[in-house]
Every structure is written in C-alpha cells, then in structure tokens.
Design a protein that fits this description.
Strand content of chain B: 5-15%
Largest sheet of chain B: 6 strands, mixed
Number of helices of chain A: 15
Largest interface: A-B, 33 and 33 residues
Oligomer: heterodimer
CATH superfamily of the largest domain in chain B: von Willebrand factor, type A domain
CATH superfamily of the largest domain in chain A: P-loop containing nucleotide triphosphate hydrolases
Distance between the termini of chain A: 58 Å
Number of strands of chain B: 6
Strand order of the largest sheet of chain B: 3-2-1-4-5-6
Shape of chain B: elongated
Strand content of chain A: 5-15%
Radius of gyration of chain A: 27 Å
Radius of gyration of chain B: 34 Å
C-alpha cells in the first residue's frame, strides 16, 4: 500500500491488518505523516507500542524497516557511513603488482603521481563505503521506513546533526559529493522523554503522544494477541492492570507487560485471579521490589489475609 | 476557515503554547488533508501538527471546542407558535409592536424583540449592548493570563449589565395584556415558557460573545508571545512576582538543555588527555600497525557537586532556582549532595532522590522553616557539616555555597571553612548581593562576613538574576 495516497480509513484497515489496534489519533498522525512527507515523533510511556507502530507501518506498506537505535555516544560514523579502511588496504595489497605495472612505464615522478591520482576514484567509491542506517535509508532503491529509536538517549550534538539530515534528506560525503535520497523515506522517531528533545527537531516533526490505552482498548489488544485467555479472566486481568496504573508506583506496567502477563496466565492454566496466582505472577508486571510490596498491600484490602502466612 | 485556524493558533500562543510559523503552515496543510467534516480527525490533525509537548495537550483540549464553534447555541423558537390561531397571532404581534415602542432604552427593546420573536441578536447589536461593560473589562485585562475563575467573573460582570430583570418585567406586562385580551391559559403558559427559554439562549449567546471579545482583546495585547522572557532573566530575583517566578521556572528546563549541550560540546572539543597506547595500537591494527590515528585518553571526569544553600526567606528564590538548575543537569554531574542551612544544617539530597525537583523543593520549603529573622548561622552549620558530612567532600568535589554571607554576628567559623577549601577541588560561592555590598553592615541589623569568605573561595559569582545564575552554573562545567 502506498501511504502517500491512502485515506485515513485505509490506514486504519492496513494497521489492523497487521494486528495493531490504532486509535483515531494514531491513524490520523500516520496518515498525515504519509501525506505531508514529514517525520513523525512519537512520545509516550515505555511499552505502549511506539516502536511497534513503526514495524507495523513498514509491514503495512511492504517497505523495508531500517532501524537506528540511539544510545549515549552515538556519532556520525556509526549512524551515517564509514570508510572501510581494511578493505581498501587489502585491495591495495592485492593490486600491488598491477599498480607497479601501471606506474612502471612512467617517465618521471610527476607522471607517476598523476597516473596514481587518476586511479584514486577507485578507492574512494561506494565500493568501499560502509553505509550505516541513515545512509542506507537515503540511498535505498526502494522506499523505506526509517525508525530512529529512543532519540532521547542520543547526545544533543547528534540531534543537531540529525536535524540537517531530516530537513533535506541529503548527505555530503567529501570524497563522493552529495548523495540525495531517491525516495523520501518515511521517518519515525520515538522518545521516552528521558530528556527534552530540542524544539528545532520538534518543529520539523509531526507529534503523536501515545498514552496507556483505556480498559476496552487494552482488552481488545489482549484478546487479539492472546486469544487463548478466557474472556472473563482477560477482563479481570486488564481491570487489575488498569488499577495498578492508578497506584503511585516507580514504574507502571506497560501494555507489553500486560500481554506477557496474559500469556503467563495461559501457561499457568489460571482459572481466576486468586491470591495465589497473583502472588506468583505479579513479578511479570512489576519490576521493583518496592512496587511489588506496595501493590500487594493495596490489593490486600478487603479479602482475607490468611494466605499471607501460607496457611491454606 | 483558515482565518479561524489562524485565530486558534494565536489563542494557543496567548495560552503559552509555543507555535512556530512553520508549524502553523503544517497545521493548515494537515487540515487540507484530513478535512473538517469529521471533527475527531480534524482535531487529531491539528493536534499532531501544533502540539509538541504532552503538557500542552490540556490547553489544546480546552481551547479547541471554544474556537471551532461546535459549542452550539441552544435553539430559539417563536413563542406561542403552535398554540395560537391566526387572529391571536396578529394580536400578539400588534401588542409586541406597541410595547416595543414604549420600551427604553433602545437596547432593551432590541433584546425584548429578540426574545419574543425567537431571533438571535446580530453581532453589532451585541457589541452595542456590551460596549460599556467591555471597555471597563479591557482596563482590567492587562493581566496577561487571567485564571479561569477570573474569566468567569468577567463574563458574569458583563452579563449583569444587560437588563434581564427588566426583560422579565416587560414579559409579565405583555402576558397580563394578553390575558386581558382573552388569550387562553395554555397559550399564555406556552408563550411564557418559550420566552424564558429564549432568554436563557440569549444569555448564552451573549456570554460566548463576551468570551470571544475578551480573547480577541488579550490576543491584541499580548501580540507577540512572551515578550518579557529576556527582561525576566535580567530582573533581580527579589523583584519577581509569583506568576513571573512560575513562568521562569518553566523555562529553566529549557535553559538547562541549552547548558547541557554547551557542556557536552565543550567536552568534545576540549584538548584530549594523555596518549593512550592501548587504544592507539588497537585502532591502527587495520592499517597493518602503522600508527595513522593517535588515540588519547579522554579525561571524562564529571564534577561532583556538594551544595550548601541558605534557605532563609530572602534567599529562597535564588536557592530554588539554583537547585532546580543543578538537578536539571544531573546527567552532567557524577554525584550531587545538597544541604540546606539556616541556623543548622539539614541534608536535602534524599528529597531530590525521591521526588521530582519541583516537588522536592516544595517539600523542603515546608520542612525547613526559618525559626525567625536574624537566625542564619553559617558558622554553626559549617561545624555540623565538617562533623557529620565531611565524607562527601573529596578531591573531585566542587563545593558551592549559596548565601549572602550575613551571619548575624555569629562566629563565621573560618577554620571549618578552610578545612573544606583544603579538601575540595574547588570552592565556589554564589552571592545574590553585588560586590560593593559585601562586608558592609546594614545599620544595626546584619553584619557581612562575605569578605572573609570571599578570598578563601576559588571563585565568587554574583547571582542576583537568572542570567547571572546560568553563567555561574555554566562555569562549573568548564574544566579548570
């Protein structure tokens, strides 16, 4: 499917065809990013499906997904391109005889140098260029989806560099000249908001905030991804997770953790959410000891506290 | 419709959302694509193009319905339309005309006519009716962002100048005349009820018009958004109002981001450390061992910061901004310990460890209350610091003192101060007072030991406004 011409309804159908439940906000943002040819910046709490959206988008359009995972210390060489020195070196070693042959007939040093200079294009050609994700996205023959994941982890300087690339989708390699994108890649940036993204970058992008889904939406996701979980239990489980999110925890359970938990419940053949099951499986949802304790205290409201001491 | 969207963007700016020109164009292009028929999509499209911060979303949600007039006016009807025959209707119209001629002032008559005929007021009519009240309200409006309560009050005020009570009188009068003329009770009741509904609808219409006029006025007044930030940064902390402090607090995170990238750049560009043989050999393996690239060890020592803040009343604004900035820059600092003192020292690091900086500040200000004026005692606090917390100072630590150095004739405890200076990498003092005030005694109240402390410090910065504070904090990250 071509996102440049699809209608919103087609976007919705395509996304749900990839088993992704998208709200109308998400559909509209994806649709606009396709139509306006602008990068889409997605923010939201961890595990609500930001990265997933990019994968699904690539799946729906049938384009290749190129992923650039950001981390502290990521620089141009790792994001854009590098010269393959060792390959160049290997080639010069192997071609030594041929070089000698070419240069031997030269009368003077100047002539030999000129001849060598005539050949240097060979060594600084795309043959020896090691493309990294950004360059691959730009030089790709087919349209691609470029996912720049967790941009907030990269340094501010890298962000500034990215800004240039994203604004005109061209890169200049000093030895080769300027490489311009053959197809404008669809760009998705995700951020967990661990630091403020610069305003200049935000201005260039469309913005989508994905929050935790509400009860019904999350229930639909669970039913879609873990169909073997009994409907009654699925509802109970999702209600429980939604309740956990209202507590004051260090880290709230994400959607992906809800799905993991649902799978765990299926594996354990759980019939209902009794105390035992909860205590056994709560660690799938909550990853901090203090959160676990707090949740257990909050959940142990009215029901009998006999189980706490292991007396059945 | 484009005009309406542009007005909406201006409204967002007034409410404090930053929208660039490029983004406005994006919004218009987005609307072109999604159309306006489906309201939900229209909203989502505008939101994706205009709102780039999650904390701006509530503003958008609040303003959107006000601008895209889907807030509907209640319908108005012709009173007694169904329950009167033709003859009665004629009588009704005659009476209405008669009454209108005798009603004064003019605006009351127009209002009554609108109520009894079920027609909406035109914008000119409304402007006429409201002109006096509005010109009074405009005088109040120089406050930049009136609270929702204040706005509601303004609408109420303007509505009260509209003579609704006399409208009721006129209605009663007309009903009495109609009754005397022999109109049936059902028809009368019908007329009365519809007239009251119409009156409510008129009030609603007027209320919306008032809100619109006020928004328009606010937009004109604050034509360029946030013109004052520059001034605010240069304004001394003690002259800032509560609201301005709040405004500045919001920009602090942005300024911190700028400081951070500056520090990061400086680190990258600064001279590298000593030659690193191991990494040089490894990275030159690909050239067959010929050392083409030299590697140097990166001296990547992030500073450790220990900060002692005077939290007496006069120092609170400076202290809160300093702490906010320091804690916004945590990723540039390897370890921060913070203490607050007035007469004695308390460790406040734990508050910052557990809460967001803004909340922590609140909690600390609640907990550490000045016992009375003239109680600041740095000497005693230094004694406690050296006794209990000296372990948090080592040769990599930068110690920051934040205070005015006015000790109220207590012992300045220079001995303990020297001890700190000897152990710490650097000792820096942030003082909100100008240098010419240091050491000057205020008449029979406060003495200043600042001169004694100053020459023992590695640097003393005057931090009376935000700009100075930022420059001062920036120097912390310059490798000395």
């Amino acid at each position: 499917m071509d996102m440049g011409t699809a209608t919103i309804e087609e976007v919705r159908v395509a996304l749900s065809g990839q088993r992704y439940i998208a709200s109308s906000d998400i559909c509209t943002a994806v649709f606009l990013a396709g139509r306006l040819g602008k990068p889409l910046l997605i923010e939201g709490p961890a595990g609500v499906g930001k990265t997933e959206l990019a994968k699904v988008w690539a799946g729906a359009t049938g384009n290749e997904l190129i992923r650039l995972q950001c981390y502290e210390g990521l620089d141009e060489a790792k994001a854009l391109y590098e010269w393959e020195y060792s390959k160049q070196l290997l080639y010069t070693q192997l071609l030594r005889d041929k070089l000698a042959e070419v240069l031997s007939s030269a009368a003077s040093l100047r002539e030999a140098a000129d001849r060598l200079a005539g050949e240097e294009d060979i060594f600084f050609s795309e043959r020896f260029l090691l493309p990294r994700p950004l360059l691959r996205a730009i030089t790709s023959d087919a349209p691609v989806v470029l996912l720049i994941d967790e941009i907030d982890r990269a340094d501010a300087e890298f962000e500034a560099f990215l800004l240039e690339v994203l604004s005109d989708f061209q890169v200049s390699v000093p030895e080769l000249g300027t490489l311009t994108a053959r197809h404008l890649p669809t760009v998705i940036l995700t951020s967990n908001n661990t630091r403020e993204i610069s305003e200049a970058l935000k201005r260039r992008c469309l913005y989508l905030f994905i929050d935790y889904p509400d009860l019904e939406a999350e229930l639909r996701m669970v039913q879609l991804k873990v169909p073997s979980l009994a409907p009654q239990l699925a509802r109970q489980a999702v209600e429980f997770v939604q309740r956990l999110r209202t507590l004051d925890l260090k880290k709230h359970p994400s959607v992906s953790e809800t799905l993991d938990w649902a799978r765990a419940l299926v594996e354990l053949n759980a019939r209902s959410l009794d105390h035992k099951t909860l205590e056994d499986t709560l660690s799938v949802l909550l990853k901090y000891e203090s959160d676990l304790q707090r949740a257990q205290r909050a959940m142990q409201g009215p029901p009998p506290s006999r189980n706490r001491y292991g007396e059945e | 419709m484009d005009q309406r969207i542009v007005e909406f963007i201006a409204g967002l700016r007034v409410a404090g959302v930053r929208v660039s020109v490029a983004e406005s164009i994006d919004a218009l292009r987005a609307v072109e694509q999604v159309g306006m028929v489906e309201r939900d999509l229209f909203r989502a499209g505008l939101q994706a193009a205009l709102i780039k911060e999650s904390h701006d979303q509530p503003v958008f949600q609040e303003l959107f319905p006000r601008y895209f007039g889907f807030e509907e006016l209640p319908p108005m009807q012709q009173p007694g339309g169904g329950s009167m025959n033709e003859q009665e209707q004629q009588m009704f119209q005659q009476m209405l005309q008669h009454l209108l001629e005798h009603l004064s002032p003019e605006q009351l008559a127009r209002l009554f006519e609108a109520m009894m005929s079920g027609q909406r007021l035109s914008r000119e009519q409304m402007n006429q009716m409201l002109s006096q009240a509005m010109s009074f309200l405009y005088q109040l409006l120089p406050m930049p962002h009136p609270s929702p309560q204040a706005q509601a009050w303004m609408v109420q005020y303007a509505l009260q100048t509209v003579p609704f009570d006399r409208l009721v009188q006129a209605l009663d009068q007309m009903l009495a005349q109609l009754r005397a003329a022999g109109l049936s009770e059902t028809a009368l009741r019908d007329i009365e009820q519809t007239a009251h509904e119409n009156m409510a609808a008129l009030a609603e219409q007027l209320g919306q018009e008032i809100e619109r006029m006020m928004r328009e006025q606010m937009r004109q007044q604050t034509g360029t958004p946030r013109p004052s930030l520059r001034d605010l940064m240069d304004r001394p902390f003690e002259n800032l109002s509560r609201r301005e402090m709040e405004e500045l607090r919001q920009v602090v995170t942005r300024l911190a981001a700028r400081l951070r990238s500056r520090a990061a750049l400086r680190q990258r560009r600064s001279k590298a450390g000593p030659f690193d043989a191991r990494r040089t050999i490894r990275s030159n393996l690909r050239f067959g061992g010929i050392p083409l690239i030299l590697r140097h060890r990166r001296r990547y020592l992030k500073p450790k910061i220990t900060i002692l803040c005077d939290l007496s009343y006069s120092m609170r604004p400076v202290a809160s901004f300093t702490l906010l900035l320091i804690y916004a820059l945590q990723d540039q600092v390897s370890r921060t310990r913070s203490f607050a003192f007035i007469d004695d020292l308390t460790d406040i690091s734990t508050d910052f460890a557990e809460m967001r900086p803004e909340q922590a500040l609140e909690a600390i200000q609640q907990r550490v209350r000045p016992p009375g004026s003239y109680s600041t005692d740095l000497g005693h606090s230094l004694r406690t610091f050296v006794r209990d917390y000296f372990s948090c100072v080592d040769s990599r630590t930068t110690v920051i003192f934040l205070g005015d150095g006015r000790n109220n004739y207590h012992d300045p405890n220079l001995q303990a101060f020297d001890q700190v200076c000897r152990r710490a990498r650097r000792v820096i003092w942030f003082n909100p007072e100008a240098p010419h005030m240091w050491g000057v005694e205020y008449p029979d109240t406060l003495n200043s030991d600042m001169l004694e402390y100053a020459h023992r410090c590695d640097a003393v910065h005057q931090v009376s406004n935000l700009r100075q504070l930022i420059t001062a904090i920036d120097t912390l990250f310059v490798r000395g």
